[in-house]
Structure formats: C-alpha cells, structure tokens
C-alpha cells in the first residue's frame, strides 16, 4: 500500500492500526528494502488529486452512520453536526453534477442510498407518481378527464390543475421525457380541459 502511494494515515485507517505502529513498520522495512520511500513518493505524486482522503472517508462514514441510524440522509434543519453532514453531502452532489467528483469517490458514495439524487427531487417525483395514479383512478371511475375550471369536486379540481400544468409543460417542452412517456402510456391522448 505504501509503494502504491497511500499515506501512513490511510494505511493505518485501512488496517485498523495506530499510525505510529505503521510508521515504525515502514521505517524497519526501509532498512531491508532500500528505495521504498522513493517509490512511495513517486506513486504519491502520480495519484489523483481528488482521491478520497482519510478525512473524506471519515465524513462518508459519519454520513453512512447517520443514514443507518435515522433511515434518511442528513438535513439542513437538524443540529450542528447534522447540518455539517448535510453540507458535506451537498458538496459531493455538486461535484458529481459538474463532473468534478473522482471515480473512487463515486464508487465509495454508491454505498450510500440515494446520495446523488436531491432529496427534494425524490419527493417531487414521488408526488408526481401519486398524482398520476390518482388521475388514472379518476378517469377509470368517471370515464372523463378532470376539469380545472368547471369542476364538481375538490379532487377533480386538484387533478384538473395538475393535468393542466403537465399540458403547459409539454407545450413549453419543459416536461421531463419520462413523465411525458408515463402520461402517454397511462392516458393516450391526454390533454387539459377548461
């Protein structure tokens, strides 16, 4: 590991030993394996600058532990520790979105459920699926699409407004492709009504 460019701290964390123990072992090894430090330095210089450092790995471990304990990612509305974990996770998401997150970090983050997807977007997508299911049930029960202006029930109004918004987004070409396909599959020829 040392010859591959890992630092004493990284080796100690991976092997679950004290840094002083690893350091002493490497000093002894240098005595009967000359040039070990030079090979380490050459490998260390060639490492990706965005490698997962020991501090980065600890933060990931803290976020993973938080998620395991609370069954959710850290939020910005918690205590200071939770806010700090939330900020760190958001920084990883931002780096991922702009393409600045290294492959080793991506691989390590994949063990965290839903890390790369914004929690808010997950909630919005779930709400969208719920509305689509309600719309399908409404059309099956009434045989017609809901109206948003001359509605008879509050449910018809809610679904009519939702469908109208989807129609507007389709016309503006801002409706996500998977949503358009889901609407087309659920209700061929759908449209908003007055």
Automatic annotation (TrEMBL):
Originating species: Arthrobacter alpinus
Domain Helicase-associated, residue spans: 54-113, 125-185
Gene3D superfamilies: 6.10.140.530
Protein name: Helicase-associated domain-containing protein
